[in-house]
Design brief:
binds 4-amino-5-hydroxymethyl-2-methylpyrimidine; Heme Oxygenase, Chain A; Thiamine_Salvage_TenA; 221 residues; hydrolase; thiaminase activity; EC 3.5.99.2; Aminopyrimidine aminohydrolase; mainly alpha; globular
């Protein structure tokens, strides 16, 4: 049986490709992305991750059993740990944690994080993990692709540390846990009648991911 995630990804293939092969991603891969775009993105991504961790906390609340509660809690901690990369890079640019935390959220950051939180608040844990999945699984796919591309981990690429983080074992493990979690919750909750709504949640989240890259490119606030 194909996993629910694979089915969603293939039914939203055009939107998925626009996300994982966005010009921002290609620029990370070959090192041509402008430094201001990357910095703008990374500060917003820190703010994104804090709200995303809160979405996992909704998962803790919505968990149907203790196993899922533990997994959601572990996911929340993994997302909070991911912010170390952000704070380390920001510190290298002279930006303190206080400066990052006092930056206003961009509209793209608000749109994506509140969309995911609302999907979880309104629905059950399956709706929530479907809304969360493009984030974790998509970045793992992007990290692997860029690391394999030749220019990605080249010493000359200023974004090699970023690529290494998402291509690394730690993050790949977070993505695998997320896929396993979707399959466990699908076994509990998925019915044929629910699929169209789940696909809509997934597709919207994927489109919001692409908008997030675009916000970085455009330096949009
Ligand atoms: C916008 C966004 N999506 C996914 C990830 C991966 O955790 C991230 N850091 N930021």
């Amino acid at each position: 049986m194909t996993s629910l995630f694979e089915r969603l990804k293939s039914d939203a293939a055009a939107d998925w490709d626009a996300y994982v092969r966005h010009p921002f991603v290609l620029g990370l891969g070959d090192g041509t992305l402008s430094r201001p775009s990357f910095q703008h993105y990374l500060v917003q991504d820190y703010l994104f991750l804090i709200e995303f961790a809160r979405a996992y906390a909704i998962g803790v609340y919505k968990a149907p059993n203790a196993l899922e509660m533990r997994k959601a809690s572990a996911g929340m901690h993994a997302i909070l740990d991911e912010t170390s990369l952000h704070l380390k890079l920001c510190a290298e640019w002279g930006l303190s944690q206080e400066a990052v935390e006092s930056t206003a959220e961009a509209r793209a950051t608000i749109a994506y994080t509140r969309f995911v939180q609302e999907a979880g608040l309104r629905g059950d844990m399956l709706d929530l993990v479907v809304a969360l999945s493009p984030c974790v699984v998509g970045y793992a796919e992007i990290g692997t692709d860029l690391a394999a591309a030749g220019t990605g981990l080249d010493g000359a690429n200023p974004y090699a540390a970023w690529i290494r983080e998402y291509a690394g074992e730690g993050y790949q493990g977070v993505a695998e846990a997320s896929l396993a979690q979707i399959d466990r919750l699908a076994a509990l909750y998925l019915t044929q009648a629910r699929y169209p709504r789940l696909l809509e949640i997934f597709r919207q989240a994927v489109r919001l991911e692409a908008d997030f890259w675009q916000m970085g490119l455009d330096l949009a606030d």
